[in-house]
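Changelog entry: the peptidylprolyl isomerase record was regenerated in this release. Current contents:
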Amino acid sequence: MERAKLSLLFALHAVTVVCSGGLLVDVVVDRYEIPKYCPREVETEDFIRYHFNGSFYTDGKKFDSSHDRGKAFISQVGLGRLITGMDRGLQGMCVGERRRITIPPHLAYGSIGTGGVIPPDAVLVYDVLLLDVWNAEDKVEIRTISKPSSCNRTTASSDFIRYHYNGTLLSGEAFDSSHSRNATYDTYLGQGDIIKGMDEGLLGMCVGERRIVIVPPFLAYGETGSGTLVPPQATLVFDVLLVDVFNPKDDLIVEVKEVPDGCTRRSAVGDYIRYHYNGSFQDGTAFDSSYQRNSTYNTYIGLGYVIQGMDKALQGLCVGEKRRITIPPHLAYGETGVGELIPSSAVLVFDIHVIDFHNPKDPVQIKVIHKPEDCSLTSEADDLIQYRYNCSLMDGTLLYSSDHFDSPSFTTLGADKVIPGLEKGLRGMCVGERREVVVPPHWGHGENGAGGVPRSAVLFFQLELVELQKGVPEGFMFVWLGDGPDALFPAMDLNGDKEVLLEEFSAFIRLQVEEGKGRLRPGVDPDSIIRDMFNNQDQNKDGKVTEDELSPREDDKAEKTGRDEL
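Regenerated structure tokens:
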């Protein structure tokens, strides 16, 4: 209400200050430039900082100027520290306002003048630009511009914060900006490391919050100012964006996002883990991602290969688990940061997804899902087997499947045709049996991976044995499953003509196989095997085998030589 009265009074001055004799009786105020926004007007007892040009009304001659001195004028209004006309003429001004104040002699230096500069009875004209206004009762003013919808923590005394700011004077003139340096301002709160007004104005902020902090001069740089950019007794305006906050006493913050059902094992010190991650700062700015590289991050846990906070955070996880991990700088990269990637004293936020982990001492894990009632015949070394399989990573990513082919896969056990872990998982199975087999990388494709299998990947196999053909030892084409005929050549010489042709030899061998007395090497064309066996016995290569040519059968001879099958 008082300000409204003053404004009305000034308006009346502008039209009623002249008496009948043509003399001014009061101050004339011409507000020729008024800012659109005026949050505060000058009142009695306010301190102000302003520029002016002083001239005589009669001839316009300049008698004083703060501009010429290169220094704004500072004073308090309404307490007689200025000439009466200025005390009145400055009332109700806004920062950024320009006004012309015409002052009659009796409200200026009267009939005496002053110092040889102002003659007696001089009417004075001041062109004034108001730069600043404050009061001894002022406090730090905070205006919140924006604030995140979720705010789990606010700044407190003794916290370390990183923030961006633009600093201006109350007149709008910029004096500093962290943005222009492309680096945050980093400091402790409440420790006296920054001006008092900012120590107060930065309390209670959320990461991502933006606020305007207006600091009166006595809570800023006071009478001395700061360098050439902040003048004495300047109110400072900071446009602040909080980027980061932590306390030296902070520990890890772990937020579990997703845990798969049926978690039977959790990661521990000494395990080797593969995981994907997105790395960001507290304000959400990303700094790294394994997804962008399309490659997991692989490391041992608890052995110092990663930052201390991550070493700790990777313990106690399940395969497939997702977590958000917030790591304070003293458990991350500290005050040094990492080049241009991670600033000094940065809090790091990792969203991780565990793909798999294992221990170098892990065995192959075999779980029988289904087993037929009749399981007397099981797979072993040298057997030829046919099996179905799905091979996936532990997160469920399918790598290979026998369903991608026209028929199930074949392999001979013990012939190094498959990775050791799969070999182990296929042994001891009976036809129709189904298994789940977990193969750690040292039983699989190791640190190098192989064609679609990532490095150090744990593999998950779903297996079903479809067919089993019992095998023969390496180097053999045929073995007896019991005692062969005591008189081998007569048993082989079906027509009794003392010589055995290929047809007779083949019929004899096939008969032994049909009757379960012998076994050919599985997975190879029988005609080819029998022909090779016949040629081995036909020593003179005349197309027939005689009793003299037939290798005598001695106990264990074939097993020892690995050549003479009969």
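The chain has five domains: 28-134, 141-246, 259-357, 365-469, 478-561.
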